[in-house]
Design goal:
Elements: H1 2-19, H2 23-27, H3 31-42, H4 53-63, H5 65-75, E1 81-86, H6 93-115, E2 123-125, E3 134-138, E4 157-161, H7 162-169, E5 174-175, E6 179-183, E7 191-197, E8 200-201, E9 207-208, E10 215-217, E11 233-239, H8 243-248, E12 253-260, E13 275-277, H9 280-289, E14 296-300, H10 306-314, E15 320-325, H11 328-341, E16 346-350, H12 367-372, H13 376-379, H14 388-411, H15 419-431, E17 444-445, E18 454-460, H16 479-499, E19 500-510, H17 519-528, E20 532-534, E21 549-551, E22 557-559, E23 569-572, E24 583-590
Parallel strand pairs: 4-7, 6-10, 14-15, 14-18, 15-16, 16-17, 18-19
Antiparallel strand pairs: 1-3, 1-13, 2-3, 4-6, 5-12, 7-11, 8-9, 11-12, 19-24, 20-24, 21-22, 23-24
GO molecular function, one term: RNA binding
Active site: 511
Keywords: Methyltransferase, RNA-binding, S-adenosyl-L-methionine, Transferase
Length: 594
């Protein structure tokens, strides 16, 4: 990380040195110099994160203008390292490091051919006590890309969606659904510059990209959206198909990225079952919970299962980890990840966390009790058995529907597919299955849990996610939407606090920089539940929380932490020395509830 910052300062010094000119040069620059200056300002990566004006004012009030400006800048860039959690139940940290070094050695040879001398990429074992199974793989950036720009002949170019670009900045490739526009006469094997289409203000006072998919780019100033792409070039790559193939297809690799602004090692399909890519604050959250072998743990809002599996690993897979999520497909993801990592202590259920506590004295049977019965039927029971016949009926209906679908598909072979069906299929390929389109596989439903039935509860609450990086746009979030997140999180917390037994632990975390979802919730918890108290966290590498309160001109106010409480929470600053995402952790101990 230190080496990345040194590299960044060196790049900035080189840029400032190269921009200096003598008075005579500044008075009469040549045409080639003007062309070079124009191209260097355009074909670079220097984004400005746009916020809703009211949200920007709120954050400026909370952090101060200078700090918030620094945070906004950091959010537009990925962390310059990959954080890997080693599955020590299957392998060792040393074996993983050795394998990564082999991958890097091969990649370094390729980069030497492409870029000449490249800095050595390093693999480091985490030095935080207790986290020796965490490995950091250093990346590099930002790099100056040499785009093939000549007078009256700009480089061939493609525009990708913002979501696609954010993935590419983290090391992904460019796939067909993410491509919005392309230069004319692009053939397979052409080198193209890759830029980003970011939302712009629209006529209805909202935000929109405004790019019709498939438009032709000329690279000239007369092009639509020409100026909007200044400073939004993320690298260049080689097309794997022609322009026609890109916009006729629904899937597949569109551009193989050969030169990136940020170079991070890709671990796609590498060492499956042995490693899991996870942000450092997320790993620390599982440690702060401090799960012990043999305990019963609940992970609310658990998908995709990263923290769930981290908890089970810390417990050495001895105990019971209950993971719930309201999405059928996300519960399947948890099942699949647990199976991939070889963890058997995890039980995942479909459950809306707002209904996590059993009501009306319903006859219940805990998951641990059903497991002890020893039969497959008992293991597949939901925590409340009242609606089990309904669950079986639903599953039978789903199976019948699947059979009908297969029969219908057999009947439709060779038949005409309408334009509407084609559009629906294209959306499904681009966006994935919706909430009513199960990807297959059975999941068990749960009707809730008895109060005081868990030793520890983790509430990693759904949030505005304003700490995730890289982020190229933030204008869609309003003050009202941020407040709605806060209200929703309080309702989730009301459920979580009932499920922890006296003497237990409750950990609350988010991946946002919004104090209304972080410090304000801690204030709500401490003022509402007098049996809760903040506990010290270990390990602790994050910074202190925010003290004070916020009052808006329209009378809205929220209180944050009070003096003495700031060091009992962890706030991770994206612009801080650890180069993490924005994150927040609070740990509560539960006293006698009576």
């Amino acid at each position: 990380m230190k080496g990345a910052r040194v590299l960044l300062r060196a790049i900035n010094r080189n840029r400032s040195f190269s921009s200096r000119t003598t008075p005579s040069q500044s008075q009469s620059p040549s045409q080639s110099q003007i062309l070079l200056m124009d191209s260097s300002e355009r074909y670079c990566y220097n984004p400005t994160l746009r916020w809703n004006p009211q949200v920007e004012e709120y954050f400026t009030n909370a952090y101060g203008a200078e700090v918030f400006s620094r945070i906004s800048k950091a959010l537009t860039r990925p962390s310059c390292y990959s954080c890997i959690r080693v599955n020590t139940l299957n392998t060792t940290t040393e074996a993983v490091i050795e394998k990564i070094l082999e991958i890097q050695c091969e990649k370094r040879l390729q980069d030497t051919v492409k870029h000449g001398d490249v800095e050595s990429l390093s693999v480091l074992k985490c030095q935080i006590p207790g986290l020796d199974y965490v490995v950091f793989v250093k990346g590099s950036g930002p790099h100056d890309i040499q785009y093939d720009y000549q007078q009256d002949r700009p480089p061939k170019e493609i525009i990708v969606s913002r979501k696609c670009a954010e993935a590419v900045l983290r090391g992904a490739q460019v796939y067909v659904p993410g491509i919005l526009a392309c230069s004319a006469h692009v053939e397979k094997g052409d080198v193209v510059a890759v830029s980003v289409g970011v939302e712009q203000p629209s006529r209805d006072n909202g935000w929109a990209i405004g790019i019709t998919r498939g438009i032709v780019l000329q690279g000239l100033k007369t092009d639509p959206h020409y100026l909007e792409r200044d400073g939004l070039y993320i690298g260049q790559g080689m097309t794997t198909m022609s322009r026609a193939g890109i916009f006729r297809g629904l899937s597949g690799l569109g551009v193989d990225m050969t030169d990136r602004v940020f170079r991070l090692t890709s671990f796609n399909d590498v060492m499956k079952g042995d490693i899991f890519l996870q942000n450092l604050p997320s790993i620390i959250t599982a440690h702060v919970l401090d799960p012990q072998e043999g305990e019963r743990i609940l992970d609310m809002c658990a998908a995709p299962g990263g923290k769930t599996t981290a908890i089970a690993s810390i417990m050495k897979d001895k105990g019971e980890v209950i993971a719930v999520d309201r999405s059928h497909n996300k519960v399947l993801e948890i099942h699949n990840l647990a199976a991939e990592l070889g963890l058997t202590s995890i039980k995942a259920y479909k459950l809306d966390a707002l209904k996590a506590v059993c009501e009306n004295n319903v006859m219940t049977q805990s998951c641990s009790q059903s497991q002890s019965q020893g039969s497959e039927e008992a293991e597949s029971m939901s925590c409340v058995t009242k609606d089990l016949p309904i669950l079986e009926k639903v599953n039978n209906n789903n199976n019948n529907n699947n059979n009908n679908i297969r029969e219908d598909e057999g009947m439709k072979v060779g038949c005409y597919k309408s334009k509407a069906e084609e559009r629906k299929e294209r959306r499904r390929m681009k966006n994935g299955p919706g909430r009513n389109q199960s990807t297959g596989g059975r999941v068990d439903k749960c009707e809730g849990f008895l109060p005081n039935s868990f030793d520890r509860v983790l509430l990693d609450a759904p949030c505005s996610a304003l700490g995730l990086r890289p982020r190229l746009f933030a204008g869609e979030d309003t003050v009202e939407s941020l407040r709605r997140h806060g209200k929703y999180q309080k309702r989730l917390f009301d459920q979580a606090v009932q499920l922890v037994r006296p003497g237990g632990v409750l950990v609350y975390s988010t991946c946002t920089i919004n104090p209304g979802e972080n410090e304000a919730l801690v204030r709500y918890a401490l003022d509402t539940y007098k049996f809760l108290s903040l506990a010290r966290q270990d390990p602790r590498i994050g910074g202190p929380g925010l003290i004070g309160r916020y009052e808006s001109s329209n009378g809205y106010s929220e209180e944050w932490l009070r003096a003495g409480e700031e060091d009992l929470v962890q706030r991770f600053d994206p612009s801080g020395p650890h180069d993490t995402i924005g994150f927040f952790i609070a740990k509560f101990t539960v006293g006698p509830k009576d």
